[in-house]
Amino acid sequence: MMTPPPVWLRRTIGGLSALGALVALAGLGLGLAQIVGGQASPGAFWMVLFQLCVLVAGVMGVLSGAGRFSSGPAMTPLIVGGVLFVGAIFSEPSLVRSGMPRLEVMGVPLRPLALTELVFALALGGLSLLVVLIRKPKKTVPMTLVALALVAPAMAAAVSFLLPQVRAILSGWSPVVMTLVVVAVLGIAGVLLSIGSQFVIRAIEIGIDEGLGDADAEAS
User: Fold this and answer.
1) What is the pTM of this model?
2) What share of the chain is helix, strand, coil (3-state, %, to 5)?
C-alpha cells in the first residue's frame, strides 16, 4: 500500500467529490422529472445515464476521502474527475461543439450545471497530481514551479493570437512580417511547453517512485 496523502488533502478530495455528486444528483432529478412527465427528449435519457455515472463516481471520491482505495490514492480523484468531465461534456455538448443549441431540462439550462462539473473535474485532476507530487516535495515542488514558469508564458503567448485586439494589430502588418512573428512566437512557445512538460513528467516520476518505494518498504 502506498503512503496515504495528508488528511487535509483526502478531505478536500472527498469534499469536491461530494459537491460533484450533489450537482449530478440535481441533474439526475431534472432528467427523471422530465422523463416521468412524459416530455423527455432522447437527450434526456442520455443525460440521466451520464449524471448517474457522475453520481457513482462522486460517491467513490467521498469514500476515497474517508480512507478507502488506499492502494491507489492518486488514481481515484483522477477517475472521478474524468467521469465528471465526460458527464459534463455529453450532458451539454455545446460546451465543446460550436453551433450546438444550449440544452434545457424542465426549463432549467444545463450549461451552469455542466460548467460546474467541469470546474470540479479540473480541480480533482489537479488534486490527483498533488497527491503524487507531495510525496517528495523538496524535489517535485521546485520542478513544478519551473514548469509553471515555462508553460504559463508559452500558453499566454499562444492564446493571445485568439484575442480580437491582437488579431487586429497583426492584420495591419504585411503578410510576410505577420507570418514571421506568428511562426517565431509559436515556435518559442512550443519549445517552452516541451521543456516545461518534461519537468512535470520528471516530477511525477519522482512521486511515483517514492510511493512505490514506500509500498515495497511496508511489504518487506
Assistant:
1) 0.77
2) 80, 0, 20
